[in-house]
Amino acid sequence: xxxxxxxxxxxxxxxxxxxxxxxxxxxxxxxxxxxxxxxxxxxxxxxxxxxxxxxxxxxxxxxxxxxxxxxxxxxxxxxxxxxxxxxxxxxxxxxxxxxxxxxxxxxxxxxxxxxxxxxxxxxxxxxxxxxxxxxxxxxxxxxxxxxxxxx
Length: 151
Known about the structure:
Layout lengths: L10 H9 L5 E5 L5 H5 L8 E3 L4 H8 L13 E4 L10 H14 L5 E4 L1 H9 L3 E5 L8 E4 L9
Parallel strand pairs: 1-5, 2-5, 3-4
Antiparallel strand pairs: 1-6, 3-6
Helix pairs in contact: 3-4
């Protein structure tokens, strides 16, 4: 363990977050998402598990270290409900509360059709599968810039 790092963040999660650069995407998925199959196509190439965490808990922990991109209008994508793209699932509002709180401002989310979401997930840097039972607990977070002091 290290000071100041949420205990839910494994060394592998922290390592992946450190490897990611500005504009890279991180997928947070529920247990229903085909994460293992899709993870093979990502930059990282293998699945990361955050067992014991639901989506909001995992996002809250990750966003203590990773800022969201401020150069795009919607730094988070979520999956649309199949057959009812305007339907709002409870997880959408829960996630919205987490990301708004983490960033200290309203964050816009865009909705993607199921297969468009899968295609975007394949282009992501990495996929983290949570223990969230879903449904529709699938989000893509675009990493922003960390403003660091000069060395």
